[in-house]
From TrEMBL:
It holds the Pfam family TctC. PANTHER family: BLR1237 PROTEIN, TRICARBOXYLATE-BINDING PROTEIN. Residues 1-21 form the signal peptide. This is Extra-cytoplasmic solute receptor. It comes from the Bacteria. InterPro entries: BUG (IPR005064), Bug_dom1 (IPR042100). Belongs to the UPF0065 (bug) family. Keywords: Signal. It comes from Acidovorax delafieldii 2AN.
Length: 327
């Protein structure tokens, strides 16, 4: 089914690039109409939450009309494909992140684009650690409890993730290797279904982006055991890192940023970058992003582009070592 979907995507991509081989709208008057922010994942996940926050705040602060539009499927690569084949005018942009930009291309072999060539990095928005959590009713009180149980009964402990081959799944895989344990991965179609099953106790652990899990952590229904970043999250200062839990050097996080089709005029890219960075500097936006468990981080378009290229190369090896595949 995924192969058919990707074949259709490739055809649509070829048709789209032909149809949009036109001169971009002059950037001087940008924006002269609403901007569509493509969200490549379903409603309720970390990418969706941050996308809608950015769209709402940009509409308020810059007086632009920015509309979030969910285009989910194939690990977030369907939405990226739609952005790639859009006209390079700045009116169709996308909220990308590590899963669909630097991991997806190494999983979906027939993708008709290269993120470093067919997209323009516009504005980095935030980064977030992955959280390893469990239901408030779980017997696990710490990561040490999980490791002990997993060593006693290899493969008996299950963990849910938003999907096979996502950065979150791979964070779980890297943790297994670091701890020397065998867990059973249960992939879901998005963050919310995994979260619901974790709350219900249908999986022992949830491995999730913080924005996706933060609401249930705050409500007390989900118990965070550790975060995967090098330092503690400012949103969960009492939750230890995986490194602090006995696995020195462990550091996995994901990032979110806005991209546009290749060929988008530089002054349009700079206009969006300037407004996003201005927004990220406000106390209101910082608080809103922190409330979701993420960390705001402004960059120039060039800096974001360099990050994209570096991670694209780095994660090829991680994906190959994990054995994750999408058939």
């Amino acid at each position: 089914m995924i192969r058919k979907l990707l074949s259709f995507t490739a055809i649509a991509f070829a048709m789209g690039t032909t149809a949009h081989a036109q001169a971009p709208v002059p950037a001087a008057a940008y924006p002269a109409k609403p901007i569509r922010l493509i969200v490549p994942f379903p409603p309720g996940g970390g990418t969706d939450i941050l996308s809608r926050l950015v769209a709402t705040k940009l509409t308020e602060s810059a007086k632009w009309t920015v509309v979030a539009d969910n285009k989910a499927g194939a690990g977030g690569t369907i939405g990226i494909t739609e952005a790639v084949k859009a006209a390079p005018t700045g009116y169709d942009i996308v909220m990308g992140q590590k899963d669909n930009l630097v991991i997806g291309p190494w999983l979906y072999k027939n993708l008709p684009w290269d993120p470093t060539k067919d997209l323009t990095a516009v504005a980095h928005v935030a980064y977030t650690p992955v959280v390893i959590a469990t239901s408030a009713n779980s017997k696990f009180k710490s990561l040490a409890d999980v490791v002990a149980a997993a060593k006693a009964a290899p493969g008996s402990i299950t963990y849910g993730s938003p999907g096979n081959g996502t950065s979150i799944h791979l964070a779980g895989d890297l943790f297994e290797k670091a701890a020397g344990v065998k867990l059973s991965h249960i992939p879901y179609k998005g963050s919310n279904p995994a979260l619901m099953d974790a709350l219900a106790g249908n999986v022992d652990l949830l491995v999730s982006s913080l924005p996706s899990a933060m609401g249930q952590i705050k409500s007390g229904k989900l118990r965070p055991l550790a975060v995967t970043s090098a330092k503690r999250s400012s949103s969960l200062p009492d939750v230890p890192t995986v490194a602090e839990s006995g696995f020195k050097g462990f550091d996995v996080s994901t990032w979110y940023g806005i991209l546009a089709p290749a060929g988008t005029p530089a002054n349009v890219v700079n206009a969006i970058n300037a407004e996003v960075n201005k927004l990220l500097a406000t106390a209101d936006m910082k608080a809103a992003i922190h409330a979701q468990g993420a960390e705001p981080e402004a960059m120039s378009a060039a800096q974001f582009g360099a990050l994209l290229k570096a991670d694209y190369t780095k994660w090829k090896g991680i994906v190959e070592a994990s054995g994750a595949k999408i058939e």
